[in-house]
Design brief:
87 residues; mainly alpha; 2 domains; 89% helix; elongated
Length: 87
């Protein structure tokens, strides 16, 4: 028979890998944010890069494609894991 204390220990052990993965995800998110939002545009600003209209359009299209792919992935991945777990 499992007591309340044993259940708490089991839950704590299950959360350890999740906490480790969460820290890794946070580090990646902060790193990518700094690189893509601050460093990369900052270098172009400091060097005096002149944005052409075609460059701006390409950058905008790339951003929208990235958003669409991310949205599809965020929507479908949990559903795939749910169906995989049920089998």
């Amino acid at each position: 028979m499992m007591t309340y204390l044993n259940m708490e220990r089991k839950l704590a052990m299950e959360k350890q890998p999740i906490n480790k993965d969460a820290k890794l995800c946070i580090q990646w998110a902060i790193g990518l944010t700094v690189i893509l939002i601050i460093v990369w545009p900052g270098i172009m600003f400091i060097t005096g890069y002149q944005y052409s209209l075609s460059f701006f359009k390409g950058w905008t299209v790339l951003a929208f494609v990235w958003l669409m792919v991310a949205g599809i992935f965020i929507t479908i991945r949990p559903l795939m894991e749910l169906f995989k777990k049920d089998q």
